[in-house]
Amino acid sequence: MWKPSERLMETIRHYASFPATGVSLRQMVQFGDRPSTGTLFRASQFLSEELPIRLAHRVQDLGELPDGLSEMPSIKKVQDWYAQSFEEIITLPRPSLTQEVRNRLLRPGRMNGGSPSKILSEATQNPSIREGQYRSSTTANGTINGNGKPPAVAAAGRRYFVPADGNVDWPPELNDYNQRFSRTLQQIKRRHDSVVTTVAQGILEWKRERQRMQIDSTIQSFLDRFYMSRIGIRMLIGQHIALTEQTHVKHPNYVGIICTKTNVRDIALEAIENARFVCEDYYGLFEAPKVQLVCKDDLNFMYVPGHLSHMLFETLKNSLRAVVEQHGADRDQFPVTKVIVAEGKEDITIKITDEGGGIPRSAIPLVWTYMYTTVEQTPSLDPDFDKSDFKAPMAGFGYGLPISRLYARYFGGDLKLISMEGYGTDVYLHLNRLSSSSEPLQ
Ligand SMILES: Nc1ncnc2c1ncn2[C@@H]1O[C@H](COP(=O)(O)OP(=O)(O)OP(=O)(O)O)[C@@H](O)[C@H]1O
Ligand SMILES: [Mg+2]
């Protein structure tokens, strides 16, 4: 099994002293429309600095957990994955370029083929989070301490991708490097597929060994930070892989994995169907409780469809479960759950209203903690059963709501829950349309 060397750990510590650079959805889209070889190369350069910084923070965080949690085998395993991915990126050989090509790479390019170059719009403070809410508590002061090689550019001055001039031929080495970089990212993405389940496994190991019933606020905020960072890393990696592929074929409404015309109604209908299917399966129902959708046909906005599906599917599963358990699985008629989509200038808000009996007020803060669930027996946590997320089963991990809220907040939205105990629950999913807010990482 792969283990990090002491030297590598030292380099990781050094990288972890730099803060991550947050990127906004808008910046990713502005940059990414049909990137040239030169532009992709610059993006690779940005990522080959930014990803190691983010990975290094995670390695450190995982090593500094309280109460012996860092020592749990599954936590160690995940820490090694992060360290190994860090190493793969920083050791990837770079092409040697002529001075002429270097100069050309530095020349400001044109954005979106033709319009004169402009600097990407500034990312704004994410409205859904307190300053520094997901920041890691490392020595993030950005000083270069002389250990290892410092990242090439000072973090404060680093911008997200800057397009390079697209209308010229680039030497083949550049394209080769882009392909290699993208393949490395694919390998890393795959390695980290089961991180969520493996970390959850680590927490279970710790609970068992230390006889802990609940996770305290230090661990809760570690998990929030850790999973938020994971969403960001996977976004950057997924986006870059998709952009590299889209230099050949491109879907008109897609920039990488971002859909500039995400149709809310289509995604909601699909999530409803999937959640009802899982519900029927789980409770052995002939027909799951009905869900009514109120949404304009042509409501489109810029978003990552996968994120929206995830949040809707999770909240709908919760509602359907509550409805069935409140009224009894032997019923043949259930109250209808309503999904109402409102379009504002600033937000698109989706309200999911159920008559599932609500949640006692004292339990509301708990629903946002990891592993809080009212399912009696947590389903088995085999990290291989579902590679990417806790998606398949109806309920039972206590991850559905906290992770969905991270997805919402990642692009400046939020997830809120108001309950009437004895009657039902309203979940509000706010999605920020302005898409200028920065990832909540710094
Ligand atoms: N709409 C709802 N009505 C009533 N209770 C709810 C509702 N949504 C969530 N809950 C309560 O909050 C708990 C946590 O929800 P969460 O989605 O985070 O985890 P889960 O559904 O138990 O497991 P999973 O990780 O598989 O989603 C649930 O177990 C349930 O008790
Ligand atoms: Mg759930």
UniProtKB/TrEMBL annotation:
Gene3D superfamilies membership: Alpha-ketoacid/pyruvate dehydrogenase kinase, N-terminal domain, Histidine kinase-like ATPase, C-terminal domain
Domain Histidine kinase: 308-435
EC main group: transferase
Cell membrane is among the record's keywords: no
An example Gene Ontology molecular-function term: ATP binding
Gene Ontology biological-process entries: regulation of glucose metabolic process
Gene Ontology cellular component annotations, sorted alphabetically: mitochondrial matrix
Reactions catalysed: L-seryl-[pyruvate dehydrogenase E1 alpha subunit] + ATP = O-phospho-L-seryl-[pyruvate dehydrogenase E1 alpha subunit] + ADP + H(+)
Keywords: ATP-binding, Kinase, Mitochondrion, Nucleotide-binding, Transferase
Location(s) in or outside the cell: Mitochondrion matrix
Presence of the UniProt keyword ATP-binding in the record: yes
Biased composition (Polar residues): 122-146
Region spans: Disordered: 107-148
Pfam family, one: BCDHK_Adom3
EC number(s) from the headed UniProt entry: 2.7.11.-
Family indicated by similarity: Belongs to the PDK/BCKDK protein kinase family.
Protein name from the UniProt record: Protein-serine/threonine kinase
